[in-house]
Each structure stands twice: as structure tokens, then as C-alpha cells.
Specification:
This protein has 598 residues and is of the alpha/beta class. It has 23 helices and 26 strands. The chain crosses the membrane at residues 7-31.
Length: 598
């Protein structure tokens, strides 16, 4: 009987593997017979949700579900369409386009598309619907025409920046935050230790918000052919319903989706069809696929030690120090690679993991492979640490960057447990064995040790940044102090070299590789996407890596579903309050990311 059950289980396992292989085979067969690009088309894009910067293990995502359209997909899709005579125009439904830097990347792509002589139209049922639609409208203002439904509104009401402060809540629960920081603007810990904005945090947050606000005003004014004073006045009068938005010259008319699509297809000519940007890119092929090789390496998410991975609770990703470092080594070893574009989108994280990546950026340059950093939504604290060794740094005007500083500490929870009737007794061997213990406060000697570590790390961070940015240490420290800047302000202070996105970074990479401006290039992502079969075999327990570099170049992907969305909402609140393991790495180079509602 025992043999029977073992044989039955083995048979079921074999059938399961055959089923998976069969599904993959059918999907590959279907992929080989995909339709082509229509001869006359209108590109379509739905921006109801922000676009991801990068998705781990895309080969597996593509095999078992709809692979998310990334920001780069849209940028390159519009680049390809500019010179494609089959593409007549672009129509975009605007909803929640994402951060300021993401919106600016999309605005740049739309303006470049329009510069080719092709029309771009944005529409929405409404921008905000009695809420804040400023970010969505800021994107829409870059288009030739903007429409809303007759029932819609334009909630161009400005920006709001919110930060939770939980000191009193921690006190009620019996949790004591014990943290130190360098320097006065390193405000990530203020959520735990304060009850409101202090003078330094308020100064930095107001300056950051004012810079973003000015960028929005300028962009809307340029797009809608209004003066900046007129835009500021409109913001103070918003929201605008229907016809009032038309009268204010914020929209070009009140139209429904079907009316907009019908008009664009009619303008495109007989037989015109709609086609999503990602489907167009998939069928037409990406630009930059032939010529000199330029590596593209992603550094997305919180910086931690180990492999890159996805977080099913936050919905985000982790920038694993081992994975990104291995990607640099692979790119350096590839003789065809003449330059590297390092796309960083990170609020920071572990000091040691950040230094692991920074070291490989430095080694790549020493090996003769120029590194151009392209910053996304943010590249702050540890995110700036991994970026600062690049030959050139490119940021969007709205990129949150800088935050050159450090914090460390712990939450003491002994009183909380006592309230619950749980008491801990400790026997320690070693004077500082309780240094990281959540049951005991720092002793005076341990507090001195903590402050000494913070001084050492801050000096290391600022010294390396000063050397990388070729400025005196005193000057660098004057713009460090843990303070965040927009990309626009960071450019003025020498923390970045240029403003722009992917196209600007590619331009500088060609220049660094001593290529002509119009020279054809082939962009290759490192680490190379793994074949679906390899991903599946690793999920089943078989590892194909021949050495530690191959092992580190992989990732730990965790697939999530819509069922996790409510849990994610709770997790995000907990993350802001430091309740979800933030700081587990110790010695954190982490930026205080303001919650911007727009």
C-alpha cells in the first residue's frame, strides 16, 4: 500500500510538470503567431494606475499573466511610433499617472511624439471628481488637446504634503523609540519621535513642495498657453465643473470617450484601428535593438542585502545588493558593452548593501565602462549612495534626491509587553550583547557607541559624495545634512548633472562611449531575463547557477494577487509608522519620503 501511494504521488507530480510544460508550450506557440501592426492606427494608452518602473522575472510574468506595462515600455513605444508612418495619433485616458518624476518622464515622451507632427489627445471622465486631480491634469496639459465628460471636473487644486507623527501613539502603547540621526534634516525618524513638523523638517518639506508646485505651474502654463500668474489664480479657484473648465481654458471641450475615439479614427483615415502602446511595442519591436551595446541595469526599491525580490505586502520591490552588484560584474565582463545606464528608483535602505552596489559602480568605471545614472521617482539617501559614483547623474525636475545622512536605533517594547502581562528576563554575555535588544534601553555607553557609528557613517557618506561630485567636503556637507531636494534644486547644488529621463541618459551614455549622437545602439538589460523554463525549474527546487555571480544575478520573485490589496493598504500605513520591520538592517540610509497628494 505504501508503494502504491508513493507511486500515485509521483504520477501526480509528473502530470503536474507535464501540464506546466504543456501550458508554456502552448503560450510560446501562440506568441509565434501574434498579429502584426495595422497599416493605419491610433495608439491608445490607459493611465488609470501608475506604471511600474521595473518588474522582476518578467519571463515568468509574461508566461502566466499579463505582463505589466512599464514606464520604459511607454517611453520606447512612443519613441518607436514617432517615425512609424502607420501611427497617426495618440489617445490617452488619464487617471492616476504616478509621481512627479513619472509624470515628467511621460510628458517628455508625449512632447517628443508631438514634435514629429503627430497629434496627441488626453481625456478623462474628470480630473479628481471633487478630489485632487493636479498630477493627472499636469500630465494632460502636455497634449495637443484635453477633454473631459460633460459631467466631469478639473480638480487642479494644488499639492498637499502629509507626514504622520506617532510619538503619542507609541507612548500609549508603551513603545519607546530610541534613535539617533545625522544630520538635522534627516527626518525619517521624526515620525516616531515627534508630534508635528519641527523647524528643519518644515523648512525642507516646504522647499521641496514649493519646487514641485512651481514645476506644475510652469508646465501647465506652457501646455495651455497661459501665464504662470493665470495658472496660479486658476489653482486658487479650482475645482472647475464642466463648462467652467472650458471657459477657464483648462480643457478644449466636453466629450465622451466614444466621441474622441471616433474623431481620431476618422482623422487617421479609412480602416483606422486602435492599438494599445504595449501591444504596438510588442509587435513592432523596441527601438535601440541594433548597434553598439549599452547595458541597462535597474536598481529599484528599498536597498537591502541579498537578492532583489518583490514584496507582496507593499506591492513594491527590493533592490538586492547582491543582485545589482552581480549585474554590474556581468556587464563589465561582457566585451560588447561600451557603457552602462543605471536606472535608480529608491528611497534608500541598508548602508552596507548600498556600499556593495556603489563599489561595483566604481569598479565598472575603473574597468573603462562609463556609468550614467538615470533617477526615477526618487534616488535618496541609500538611493543616492548607489548613484553618486556614476560618471554623470540625470534626474527629472521632480525627482526626490539627496537626503545625504543616516539614522539608526530601535524600538523598546518592554513596557508594551508588560501591559499585556508578558515580562522578559535577560541574561547577557558581553557588555553590549543587548545593544539591539528591544527589551532594554541603550545604556550610556551604548548610546555613545551609537552616536560614534552615526558620525563614522555620515563622514564616510559625505566624503565619498564630495569626491564623486568633485567638490570640497565643506561645500558638500552644506547641501547634505540629511536634506531632500527636487532634481531641479539638486542640479543647482551640484548633486546631479542634467535634467531628463531615459532619452537624456542614453544620450550621455553614447557621449561617454565616444559614439556619434545618432549612432545606433543596442540596449541590453542586465541581469539578462531568465528563460521561463529556468524560472520554473528553480521554483521546483532545481538551481542552475554555476557560481556565486550567476546565483546573485537571479532574484527572489513573489507573485501577488488582487486579494492582497487591502492587506497592502494596512501595510503601507504600518511602514510609515515604522511597524513593518523598517530598520531591521540597522544603520539605515533611508529618506523621509513625503506623502504628496496631488
Amino acid at each position: 500500500m505504501k508503494r502504491f501511494f508513493i507511486g500515485a504521488l509521483a504520477f501526480i507530480g509528473a502530470l503536474s510538470i507535464l501540464f506546466v510544460v504543456g501550458v508554456v508550450g502552448l503560450l510560446m506557440l501562440a506568441a509565434s503567431s501574434k498579429p502584426g501592426v495595422p497599416s493605419n492606427l491610433v495608439l491608445e494608452l490607459d493611465l488609470q494606475q501608475p506604471l511600474p518602473e521595473y518588474t522582476l522575472d518578467t519571463s515568468l510574468a509574461g508566461a502566466f499573466g499579463e505582463e505589466p506595462t512599464s514606464l520604459r515600455d511607454v517611453v520606447e513605444g512612443l519613441e518607436k511610433a514617432r517615425t512609424d508612418p502607420r501611427v497617426k495619433s495618440l489617445v490617452v485616458r488619464v487617471g492616476q499617472p504616478g509621481s512627479a518624476a513619472q509624470v515628467q518622464e511621460l510628458r517628455d515622451a508625449v512632447k517628443a511624439f508631438r514634435a514629429s507632427g503627430k497629434r496627441a489627445v488626453a481625456y478623462a471622465d474628470g480630473f479628481g471628481e471633487a478630489g485632487n486631480g493636479t498630477g493627472a491634469y499636469y500630465l494632460a496639459s502636455a497634449f495637443d488637446a484635453v477633454y473631459i465628460q460633460p459631467s466631469g471636473d478639473v480638480g487642479l487644486t494644488g499639492l498637499v504634503m502629509e507626514t504622520p507623527f506617532a510619538r503619542d501613539a507609541f507612548a500609549k502603547f508603551g513603545v519607546k523609540p530610541e534613535f539617533g540621526k545625522r544630520a538635522e534634516y534627516k527626518n525619517a525618524v521624526n515620525t516616531f519621535t515627534d508630534t508635528s513638523y519641527g523647524p528643519h523638517q518644515r523648512e525642507a518639506t516646504e522647499a521641496y513642495g514649493q519646487s514641485l508646485f512651481n514645476q506644475v505651474v510652469k508646465g501647465v502654463a506652457e501646455g495651455r498657453k497661459l501665464s504662470e500668474d493665470e495658472v496660479r489664480a486658476l489653482i486658487d479657484r479650482a475645482p472647475f465643473m464642466g463648462q467652467a473648465a472650458v471657459d477657464a481654458k483648462l480643457v478644449d471641450g466636453l466629450r465622451y470617450r466614444d466621441e474622441i475615439h471616433d474623431e481620431l479614427k476618422q482623422q487617421a483615415g479609412d480602416g483606422a484601428q486602435l492599438l494599445y502602446v504595449d501591444k504596438y511595442l510588442e509587435r513592432a519591436g523596441r527601438p535601440n535593438q541594433t548597434g553598439t551595446t549599452i547595458a541597462l541595469i535597474y536598481g529599484v526599491g528599498e536597498v537591502l542585502r541579498g537578492k532583489s525580490q518583490s514584496n507582496p505586502l507593499s506591492g513594491g520591490q527590493v533592490m538586492g545588493g547582491d543582485t545589482v552588484a552581480a549585474a554590474f560584474r556581468k556587464a563589465v565582463e561582457d566585451p560588447s558593452v561600451k557603457a552602462i545606464v543605471f536606472r535608480v528608483d529608491s528611497p534608500g535602505g541598508s548602508y552596507s548593501a548600498s556600499d556593495t552596489i556603489r563599489r561595483e559602480v566604481q569598479r565598472a568605471r575603473e574597468a573603462g565602462k562609463p556609468v550614467i545614472v538615470s533617477m526615477g521617482t526618487y534616488a535618496a539617501s541609500g538611493g543616492y549612495f548607489v548613484a553618486m559614483a556614476g560618471d554623470k547623474i540625470v534626474a527629472q525636475p521632480g525627482t526626490l534626491t539627496g537626503s545625504i545622512g543616516v539614522y539608526n536605533g530601535k524600538f523598546v517594547t518592554s513596557e508594551l509587553w508588560a501591559k499585556l502581562g508578558v515580562n522578559f528576563d535577560t541574561i547577557a554575555f558581553g557588555k553590549n550583547a543587548t545593544f539591539s535588544s528591544s527589551d532594554q534601553e541603550f545604556t550610556p555607553e551604548q548610546r555613545t557607541q551609537l552616536e560614534s557609528e552615526l558620525d563614522t557613517i555620515y563622514l564616510d557618506f559625505t566624503s565619498r559624495a564630495a569626491q564623486a561630485r568633485n567638490m570640497p567636503l565643506e561645500k558638500l556637507q552644506s547641501v547634505a545634512r540629511g536634506r531632500v531636494w527636487t532634481g531641479e534644486d539638486a542640479l543647482e547644488r551640484g548633486l546631479v548633472d542634467a535634467l531628463g529621463g531615459y532619452p537624456k541618459a542614453l544620450e550621455l551614455a553614447k557621449e561617454a562611449a565616444k559614439l556619434e549622437k545618432d549612432a545606433p545602439v543596442r540596449i541590453v538589460v542586465f541581469p539578462r531575463p531568465r528563460p521561463t523554463g529556468q524560472v520554473l525549474s528553480e521554483m521546483l527546487g532545481k538551481h542552475e547557477a554555476d557560481n556565486s555571480d550567476d546565483e546573485a544575478a537571479g532574484s527572489q520573485a513573489v507573485m501577488s494577487s488582487q486579494l492582497l490589496e487591502q492587506v497592502r493598504a494596512v501595510y503601507r500605513v504600518g511602514a510609515k509608522l515604522g511597524l513593518t520591520g523598517q530598520g531591521a538592517e540597522g544603520r539605515m540610509l533611508y529618506a523621509p519620503v513625503p506623502d504628496v497628494r496631488w
